Amino acid sequence: MSTFTQRLMDAPRHRVIGLALGGLVMAQVVTGTALAHADGPPSDAIAKVASAEAHGEPRSVSKVTAEQVLRLAESQVGISEDSAGGGTKFQAWYMASPRAQQTIARDTGKISDYANAAWCDMFVSWVGEQLGIQDTMGQDAYTVQHAKWFEAQGRWGTAPKPGAVVFFDWNGGGIDGIDHVGFVVQDNGDGTIKTVEGNTGNGVVEIRTRPTYQVAGYGYPSYAAA
Questions:
Q1: What are the pLDDT digits (tens) for 32-54?
Q2: Domain span at residue 124?
Q3: Average pLDDT of the chain?
C-alpha cells in the first residue's frame, strides 16, 4: 500500500484526504491563470509585485503585506465545498499546479486524489500564489509537511502574528500531529486568536476564534512592512 493511500485511509478529515470521482475530476480542473483572472489579488498588490519584478527583485522578497494577504483570504469567506468534499477552486487550482506533481512524487498516489481531499492547506497555498509570494508562503496540501517546510526555513515559532500561517493540532501536540491550517487575523489577547480558514465548519471558508492551546505552531511568510 502506498504512503499516500495509507494517509487517505488513516488521516483525519482536516488532513489531506479524499478520493476523486473519476471523470468528474477533469471538469473541475482549471488553470491557475484562469483563477487569477477571475479571483485575482487586489490591484495594488499586483502593482507592487510587478514593480519588484521590474527592478529585478525575486518575488520571495515580498512587496506584499500581511494586510493584503488577509484581505484576499477574507474575501473568500463563504466559499463552500460540494457534497463530496470537493468542487472548490482551491482544489482545482492545486491539481493543475506544478506543485501537485511534486507532492504526488513525494507522497505517491495520483493527482485526482486531491479532487475531494481536505483543502485547508490548498486554500493557504492558493492565497500565496495569487499574490505572487509562493516562495515565502510555501505550497502544499499536507499540513505536516508544510509546517516542516517553515521550520526548515527558520520561519517557525510560537507568536500569533497577523498574517502568520497557523497550524493546529486538536490534541495539543506537536508538528507531527498537525490536523488543520489557516491564517492568523489577530491575537485576541485572552488566550484565543481570530483566524480565517478554508475547509472549516462544514467545509467552508470562515472566520473563526480558536484557543491557542490547539496551536502546534506558526509559520511566518516574509511580508513587506505595512
A1: 333 333 333 333 443 443 444 33
A2: 3-219
A3: 81
Q: Is residue 42 part of a domain?
A: yes
Residue 25 belongs to a domain: yes
Check if the beta carbon of residue 17 is closer than 8 Å to that of residue 117. Answer: yes
Cell of 81: 465545498
- Joined grid coordinates for residue 15: 488532513
Q: Quote the crossing angle between the two packed helices 43-54 and 66-75, to the nearest 10°.
A: 140
**Residue matched to cell numbers 478529515:** 13
Question: CA 158: distance to chain centroid?
Answer: 19
Q: Which amino acid is at 106?
A: R
Q: Is residue 224 part of a domain?
A: no
* Closest of 203, 165, 201 to residue 183, by C-alpha: 165
Question: Are the beta carbons of 114 and 94 closer than 8 angstroms?
Answer: yes
DSSP-based three-state secondary structure for 178: coil
Distance of alpha carbon 46 from alpha carbon 176, whole angstroms: 35
Domain-located, residue 226 = no
Q: How many domains does the chain have?
A: 1
Cα separation, 34 vs 93, in Å, equals 9
| pTM (two decimals) | 0.76
